[in-house]
Amino acid sequence: MGKLLAIVGTTAGGWLGWWLGAHVGWMTGYFSSVLGSAAGWYAGRYLTARLLE
Predict the structure, then answer these.
(1) How sure is the predictor about 2, in pLDDT bands with cuts at 50, 70 and 90?
(2) What are phi and psi of 50, to 5 degrees?
(3) What is the tally of structural domains in the chain?
(4) Environment class of residue 22 by beta-carbon count within 10 Å: exposed (0-12), middle (13-18) or buried (19+)?
(5) Helix or strand or coil: residue 21?
């Protein structure tokens, strides 16, 4: 369950970061996608920890 939510969070965070950053430029889109993926991974793992407590 934890890995699944981490993958979903990573995908959603990366997409959102790319969508927001691509309006500025492709390199900004790339870096914001990386940051969004990291934040999504963290959020997915955090949510899993809270659900399984």
Answers:
(1) confident
(2) -75, -35
(3) 1
(4) middle
(5) helix
Q: What is the pLDDT of residues 25-47, one digit of tens each?
A: 999 999 999 999 999 999 999 99
Contact call for residues 50 and 27 (beta carbons, < 8 A):
no
Unique residue bearing structure tokens 């934890």:
2
For 22, the domain range is 2-51
pLDDT at 1: 83
The dihedral region occupied by 41, where left means phi > 0, alpha psi between -120 and 50, and beta the remainder, is alpha
What is the spatial distance between Cα 39 and Cα 43, in angstroms, rounded to a whole number? 6
- Its pTM stands at 0.87
CB 13 within 8 A of CB 39: yes
